[in-house]
Amino acid sequence: MKLADKIRYLREVEGSLRGLGRAMTQGELVKAIAEETPQKLSQSYLSQIESGSRPHLTNTTRLLLAKFFKVHPGYLVDDPEGYHAELMSDVRLQEDTLDLWLVGGAERFRKDPVLRRALLAIARHEDSRRCLLLLESVLASDGLAERLLEVLKPVRRAEPAEHSVPEEKGVRA
Predict the structure, then answer these.
(1) Spatial contact of 113 and 121, defined as CB atoms under 8 Å apart
(2) CB-CB contact of 166 with 21 (8 Å)
(3) Angstrom distance (rounded) from CA 30 to CA 7
(4) pLDDT tens digits for 79-124?
(5) CATH number where 19 lies
(6) pLDDT of 14-59, one tens digit each?
(7) Do 60 and 116 belong together in one domain?
């Protein structure tokens, strides 16, 4: 996994831990770091890291982010190709890899808030692999997807104004 993906993932997790129900924005992260530590980090520097135009952190920034996110500083580097934690089971590794892939996809589709929210909802689910397998089964069942779309009418509910109040917990898009 690349450093940029790790930072985006940590912003996603931190936003969830803080009850936002979404990733912290870069601006929110910079503000939180400024409020919680004596050190500062600029949003433009963070943006360069996440875009990959700055592939490495300074040691000071690595320590700052590690302390803020409560991770080991060694986590904040690109992983070697094929690397995975030895103690992690294959199933958990597969689930984590899928979740990170979904979060990355959500970031790529950030201009489509409905699709982004759907991808993040799957990534946040305890068993995202099973969610996708369920979707495959729904699509394989002749006419079931169309009937569900008609009954649930997700498009109508799932396209709120860009700056609307977030959906309440339990409401599905």
Answers:
(1) no
(2) yes
(3) 13
(4) 777 665 544 445 555 677 888 888 888 888 888 888 888 898 898 8
(5) 1.10.260.40
(6) 988 888 888 999 999 999 999 998 888 999 999 998 998 888 889 9
(7) no
Alpha-helical (H) ranges within 18-152 are 26-36, 43-51, 59-69, 90-108, 113-124, 128-140, 144-152
162 phi and psi, to 5 degrees? -60, -30
Q: Is residue 106 part of a domain?
A: yes
Q: Comparing 132 with 97, which gets the higher pLDDT?
A: 132
- Is residue 33, in this structure, part of any structural domain at all? yes
Same domain for 69 and 103, yes or no, is no
Q: Which residues constitute the domain of residue 19? A: 3-75
Which is nearest to 117 in space by CA: 126, 107, 131? 107
Quickly count: other Cβ atoms within 10 Å of residue 119's Cβ: 21
pTM for this predicted structure: 0.50
Q: Is residue 58 part of a domain?
A: yes
On the 0-12 / 13-18 / 19+ scale of CB atoms within 10 A, 29 is buried
Q: Burial letters for 60-79: b for 16+ Cβ neighbours within 10 Å, e otherwise?
A: ebbebbbebbeeeeeebeee
Number of structural domains the chain divides into: 2
